[in-house]
Amino acid sequence: MDKRTLLALGLSFLVFLVWSIVFSPKPEDRPTDKQSIAEKEQSQQEDQGRPVLKDRTMPSGPKRDLMLETGRDAKDITVETDLYTAIFSGSGPLIKSFKLSNYLSKLEKGAPLKELIHVKNKDGYGFNLGFSGQSIPNANWAAYKVNRQSISIRTGGQPKELIYEWESPQGIGITTRFVFYADSYKIDLSVIIDNRSEYIIDDSLLLNLAHFPQQTKKSYYAFEGMAFLVGNKLEEVKVKKLKDKLFSGQISWIAYEEAYFMTAIISEEDKKATVKGTTLPDGEVRITYITPSLNLRQHQKATESFTLYLGPRDLYILKALNKKLEKAINFGWFDIIAKPLLVTLRFFNKHLANYGLSIILLTIIIKILFWPLTHKSYQSMKEMRKLQTMMAKIREKYKGNKQEMQKQLMGLYKTYKINPMGGCLPMIVQIPVFFALFRVLPNSIELRHAPFVLWINDLSAPDRLFSFPFQIPFMAPPYGIPVLTLIMGASMFLQQKMTPTPGDPAQAKMMMLLPIVFTFLFINFPSGLVLYWLVNNVLSIAQQYRINRQVG
Fold first, then answer.
1. Helix 3-22 to helix 505-522 angle, to the nearest 10 degrees?
2. pTM (two decimals)
3. Which of 52, 225, 248, 420 would disulfide-bridge 238, Cβ 3.0–4.6 Å?
4. How far apart are CA 474 and CA 362, in angstroms?
């Protein structure tokens, strides 16, 4: 492969990389059942505007926003396990705080634990439940009775329950039961509606997730927003597009996702439901799971069962739940390659206890697998070097006739049995792996805050030696010296120096600039990805050096 081909391939790779970042596939923001959605919206609007009329009309209390917390003066309830510390409201089924014991909010000394619930004030919440209409007056802001003031479960301990109970003056009983486990991020939830009144209840049960996105710079390759599984298909809507989105279908679960963590509501049955996502003027995001109408006649009882998940987006943990929640881990077009790479990295890390070493070992194994192919390609590149003089003469002789020039060059390749595109294979075969790692490293909880050596203390973040108080052009914070990236750029420069020199001076200059362009591009990439590219370059240089000596 001459440098003209290498240059074209490098530029194509660069364009593809930028295109994959900027124009990555967007989830379809479409309702799955437009007619049922419209009917649902109309029904909800009518319910909110008047009391429900069935066999008899139940008196209703004054209208209020069901999102408001009940009984603000009630004492909060603390739930502690080895995995998290959660704060529940003492007067109603609301989760106000959920801190993960094994994860820090950021990689700094004295940093607080990771909080999954972000609210604007102390009265905010991350989860609550209520009802859509007025069939159960005052239920959305009633003061519930609770069975305990605190819960503590340690490893090996039995599950414990937190039970909220309330009964309306008309005789409608609501019991909400949370079940906590010592070694799991899941929380079982059941809501029992016991209609002991003389009225019909046709409200829908609403389960709400609320989140106030943090005003920090987000990675352009990490997703944050609403996600749900409908009909075994994953749908995602980014925060900036989450304005009164309504979906209907067989909903398995809904969730609020960020790069490494998620809060989810999982239905025990894949039954028809509606999902609503909206962003309030103050920036708060609300995601609501809406059940079908309860339609409870006099002296009937209904139980709605769910599972809550508040924890890391860990493929193994999510899969163990057996709730299809592992489908939330999606690496796009390269998912078929990315997940096996992630599993392999986890396996290596289990024995090496260092994800940096695991990435190096993975790179070596990939290089060994493609060694015969790249060996043949590098031999072709070496043979091309010997033809540079003859190729230069042909270009000079036929510089006014491009068609004849190409004909003569192809004849030269045929005479010496050289495939001019053979040298492209080393770069082509690693492109899928590169893009798979490009999706895995900044989106996998395993790599979050995973150290390597020396100054590289987070393989999911860019490498920075020292920390500068001023901004650096083209560099995302934190600002420092990207040592590993500079070494990677130097390795690319050395590698391209070992390839045949193009006859065109303009192409030669472009080839000299290519390592610089890649260095600037990689400055803000995860250090784990830079490490992979660097090790791959070093192995390629060693392989090409060995072939050069053999061919002479």
1. 30
2. 0.79
3. 225
4. 30
- Pairing assessment for the beta strands 205-211 and 127-131 based on DSSP bridges: antiparallel
* Choice among 169-173, 307-311, 336-340, 424-428 with the minimum mean pLDDT: 424-428
Averaged pLDDT, 11-34: 47
The reported pLDDT for the residue numbered 193 is 94
Instruction: Give one DSSP letter per residue of 6-59, joined into a string.
Output: HHHHHHHHHHHHHHHHHTPPPPP---S-HHHHHHHHHHHHHHHHS--BSSSBPP
Instruction: Tell me what the mean pLDDT of segment 198-202 comes to.
Output: 89
Helix (H, G, I), strand (E, B) or coil at 313: coil
CA distances 69 to 151, 191, 302, Å, are 21, 18, 24
> How high does pLDDT run on average in the chain?
80
Nearest-angstrom CA–CA distance, 342 and 347: 9
Paired strand residues for 370: none
pLDDT of the residue at 34: 41
Is the backbone peptide bond immediately before 292 cis, with ω within 30 degrees of 0?
A: no
Taking the C-alpha atoms of residue 426 and residue 367, their distance in angstroms, rounded to an integer, is: 9
Residue 37: the pLDDT is 40
Measure the CA–CA gap between 289 and 275, rounded to whole angstroms.
5
Alpha-carbon distance of 255 to 266, in angstroms, equals 8
Asked if 260 and 328 count as a contact pair (C-beta separation under 8 A), the reply is: no
Model confidence band, residue 538 (pLDDT cutoffs 50, 70, 90): very high
pLDDT of residue 88: 94
The proportion of the chain whose per-residue pLDDT surpasses 70, expressed as a percent, equals 78
Please give the helix or strand (H or E) that residue 144 lies within, else none.
Answer: none
What 3-state DSSP class applies to 307? Answer: strand
CA distance linking residue 177 with residue 188, whole number of Å: 8
Which helix (H) or strand (E) is 438 found in, with range? helix 425-440
Domains of the chain: 3-21+337-551 (no CATH), 35-62+127-142+160-330 (2.70.98.90)
Q: How is the chain split among helix, strand and coil, in percent rounded to 5?
A: 40, 25, 40
